[in-house]
Amino acid sequence: MYLLLLPVDGSAEGQNELQRMIDEATPGDVLTIPSGHYTGPIVISKPITLKGNGEVVVQGNNLDVVVYIAADQVTLEGLTIEHQSKDKDTMAVLVEGDGHQLTGLTVQTDGYGIVLRDAHQSEITKNTIKGNAENERKDRQNGIDLFGSHDNVIKGNDISYVHDGVYLERSEDNDITDNTVTHSRYGYHLMFTEGTRLTENISEQNVTGAMVMGTRGTVVSHNQFRKQLKHVFAQGLLLYDVLHAEVHHNHIHANLVGIFIQDSQENKIYQNEVAANYIGVQMLNAKDNHIYENQFVANVVSAQAQHSSNNQVKENYWDNHMGLDLDGDERSDIPYRADPFFYTIVKDTPAFQIFFQAPGMTFLENILKSDTSLWLEDAAPRKHPVLDMDESSQSVSIGLLAFSALLLLFSMYIIYYGGKRKNET
Amino acid sequence: MSERILKVKGLEKKYQSKTVVYPIDFQLNSGEILALCGGNGAGKSTILKMIAGIVEPSQGNITIDGITWDKNRRDYARKIGYMPDHFSLDASLSVRELLNYYAQLKKVPKEETAGILDRVGLTDVQDEPFDSLSKGMRQRFMFAQAMLGSPQLLILDEPTNGLDPYWMKSFVEIIQELKKENQSIIFSTHQLDIAESAADQVIFLHEGQVLESGELDRLKQKYNHMSLQQMFSRLFFRA
Amino acid sequence: MDALTIMKNEIKLGFRNPWAYSFLGIFTLLSLSMLIIQSGPVSDLNQYTKTTGTLMNLILYLLPLMTLLLGALSITSEKEDGRWHLLSTYPLSSFSFIIGKYAGMFIVLTAIISFGFGLSGLIGSFLGQGLSLETLLWIFVFSMMLILLFLGLAVWIGAASKNRWQALTISVGVWFLLVLAWPILLIAVLSLFPYASIQPTLEILVFFNPAELVRIFVTLYLGGGHIFGPAYYEWIEWFHQPFGVLFLVAVSMLWVLGSVGLTIWKWERKRRHV
Q1: Which of A159, A325, B66, C39 has its CB surrounded by the most CB atoms within 10 Å?
Q2: Which of A151, A184, A217 finishes a domain?
Q3: In b/e form, how buried is each residue of A334-351, taking b as 16+ CB within 10 angstroms?
Q4: Which domain holds residue C90?
Q5: How many domains does chain C have?
Q6: ipTM (interface pTM)
Q7: Do residues A146 and A177 lie in contact, with contact meaning Cβ atoms separated by under 8 Å?
């Protein structure tokens, strides 16, 4: 890799001090770096451990890569890496080789955070990665970026203000768990991966919580995808061209679209809690998926689907469904169906989306029931919620009480004033 | 002492091609009472509405105390009190509430309303809702609202319609009193005995045209002291 | 001053009218439904939730119709019953009269919705049912705006109608057109238009339908603007700027002033044409 060496404003000793220590170490050494500011680029080409003692800051100004790991078995611990660059396609940390451990790093980057290229069996844990909040999303790069890297563990990282939080492409059997991504484009972005386990992560206030595309055998479970709202394409979880995924026990709350499933087959989606989204689940050309025991609560619209009648949808709880259970099996004998009417119109002419929840539109849907055999249908929806909702604590609101009382007093006064016949002169 | 209050000159009303009131002239001094007499469709009501400013004349002009409606309708309106023949008031209000409401719109102090209610004998029912009143009482109420603010000219459309004999007599007494207070009154009636007992001037109308008009005394002389009823019959058959 | 007298009288009449109480009953039932709608996890980022969405929908069915009927019939009956006849001999301007009627009916309608929301809010705050102050406030603002705009339309219908029957028919017709038929009508008609002209047409037509105007803009400021999709991205961003807010306030004011102004003009023109 070609590296640019540009002068930085650090002291002359600081400039090469760290690299000199690394160059002088022998494989297997544990180097404890005294606190201070060091300038990159740093290249590590032997299996050693670098531990920060106190505040160890490695700075790079307009470098292609600030810290470059070009060997196996390297451990980085407790370092701060500051990467300033005008070019977003540059990297704070580039990792090649296998069996690394990067832990407790603080990365502030104008480009990529931690990049793995053909790097396997490594652990990227408990790092904090922050992009440049002043740049627009499209002018940032990914927090953790894997390409052709297998069997890695990415755990407990805290990522914000980047492009995609954790990005995986053509990588297999990686574990992504317990991470948090906020204020970025996609929280977790899987492209053409196999056997990825995306578990117990949090994504908040990104455009999309988890974007899963062209993957095989993905597990998405126990994640929380929340508040993906502030974008016209916002969604909690997107499955596109996905085969054999298991999506379960996720909390998908307050997104523009909770789950969007397109051109995906033979996935199992169960026991998720999809709540308070504008649209709970949206399906387009999805077939042979098993969707069961999910809970759809307090979504403005529970489900929209087109060309998605051939899925096994059953025993979900839909709070807007008027069910009827005659045989006492806790399942409604009236199926739940998602009317594709509005969705179809909008697919053809997106401008008509302005009629979302227009009273005339809902009125129309109710009187024009077209051929329901082509609709997404839950044949035996549950009568009662599957899972306990974790309601946020609802205390008596003084403001609400006061405002309501005020309204009531006002109306009483007016009614009294108007309605009462005054008999006194 | 007596001044011209109402001047009507060449007043005419046409609806499309149909003439309802043919050109008519008359005048009224302060403290005078004029009765418009005639049957249904004679044009009495239309003339009164034109004077009240509700209906726009097709021709001619009306001056009240030197003011025309077109020139200053607010002042014009302050000089008149109008009693319509057909009405339906907000039935749910009490008599007093309703009169107070009209008094407020005429900027008449509330205290005055009690006296007026007393004058038309509605004090006892002042807290009753308007719709519980008999036809005669409603008629008296409408008379009361016209009197609010002692306007210089009272315009009364069939004021005695539906009144019992007692109140008919009272009506005549009241307008005689108002006359003494120097108010002028123009009213329409098909009850000629009322006109005879109250009016200074009389105009007989038939199908929009004046059959006869003049001061009551002069007419009496002219027609050998006939009653107005007899006079009207004669004029009517001649017409 | 005269307007104030007319207004006070209108308030009195409003609450001696059985209509007012039936509306009060229906509206209270409707607003109590906000205690039943499950609100789910609440996000601090937006107030556009199932509760607000569903309530807005329900209110849009009822409140414009209520306002149109109450407003139009009240104005027409003044003429039909001859009360205006009498009043027009008073030193009272058409301006004061219509403004007074409008203000009085606005207060009556506001009192009706205040009762419904107040009662529901009070019950809600004791039940701790997840109803928030913000939700109630926004729904209240939403309803007030509907009343303001539709009342303008109502008085105009009242002034233009010859009798109650006509006022009733026109009111129901206008409600049907603006609330129920609007989307399907536009979808049907605009489908014949060149594709590129559909969205600009829709964006302009929003300002010509008070129901849509209020619905879309309250949704927008509740934080739900993105639901209208990528096509409206820039449009929505624009309305989030201070100038956008100002523009909306101006359009709403134009609606009220325009319709009330036209009513006064019409009323005045008919003053002496019986």
Answers
A1: A159
A2: A184
A3: ebbbbbbbbbebbeebbb
A4: 3-272
A5: 1
A6: 0.88
A7: no
Q: Which chain B residues are Cβ-neighbours of A418 within 8 angstroms?
A: none
* Enclosing domain of residue A155: 1-184
| Residues of A whose CB is below 8 A from C16 | 418-419
Provide the strand spans (E) within A18-74: 30-39, 42-44, 49-61, 65-69
Are A63 and A176 contained in the same domain?
yes
Q: Please give the biggest Cα pair distance in chain B.
A: 52
CATH code of the domain made up of B4-79+152-238: 3.40.50.300
pLDDT tens digits for chain A (425 residues)?
A: 444 444 444 444 455 788 988 988 899 889 899 888 998 799 999 999 999 988 999 998 888 999 999 999 999 999 999 999 999 899 999 999 999 999 999 999 999 999 999 999 999 999 999 999 999 988 999 999 999 999 999 999 999 999 999 999 999 999 999 999 999 999 999 999 999 999 999 999 999 999 999 999 999 999 999 988 888 889 999 999 999 999 999 999 989 999 999 999 999 999 999 988 989 999 999 989 999 999 998 888 889 888 888 889 988 998 878 777 777 777 888 888 888 888 888 888 888 989 988 888 877 777 776 667 778 888 888 887 766 655 554 556 788 889 999 999 999 999 888 777 554 43
The residues, any chain, with a CB within 8 Å of residue A360's CB and separated by 6 or more, are: C179, C180, C181, C182, C183, C184
Q: Within an 8 Å CB–CB cutoff, is residue C112 touching chain A?
A: yes
- Greatest extent of chain C over all pairs of C-alpha atoms, in Å: 61
Residue C40 carries which DSSP code? -
**Alpha carbon separation from C135 to A10, A296, C43 (Å, rounded):** 55, 21, 12
- Please judge whether A425 and B114 are an interchain contact, meaning their C-beta atoms are less than 8 angstroms apart: yes
Any domain includes A191: no
A165 and A58 housed in the same domain = yes
Say which DSSP state C43 is in: P
C-alpha of B151 from chain center: 12
Q: What is the DSSP letter of A299?
A: -
From the CA of B238, how many Å to the nearest CA of chain A?
Answer: 56
Contact of C42 with chain A, judged by CB distance below 8 Å, is answered with yes
